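FW: tagging you since you asked about this chain on Friday. Here's the raw sequence from the shared folder, copied in full. Didn't touch anything.
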Amino acid sequence: MTGDERERAWAALHDAIAKMPGWAVGPCVYHGDGALWHVAAIDLRPRGRQAIRAAITATGQTEIAALRALVKLLVAHSRKPPEPRSAARVPECSEADL
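HL: got it, structure written out here
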């Protein structure tokens, strides 16, 4: 692994996360148990008091592999249409219903 490869992998990750306002990336951490690198992106936007924050985690055999995997996951996540908020949903009605 060269320094340039590592820099390009981090740059690609920062480009991907920039398209997801309110999200942040944590450090890339090596876990010796499974000989894997782990990195996560977390949604830091405000939620309700007991809401669980969304997170996307990726792993890889190397730091660069983990970073590239997270980029792929973030791109796929950002292309997914947003989930409807059921509390904000207004029932539809027509004039016949009135």
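FW: Residues 3-81 form a domain with the Double Stranded RNA Binding Domain fold (CATH 3.30.160).
HL: agreed, and The two ends are 68 Å apart (CA to CA).
FW: great, closing this out.
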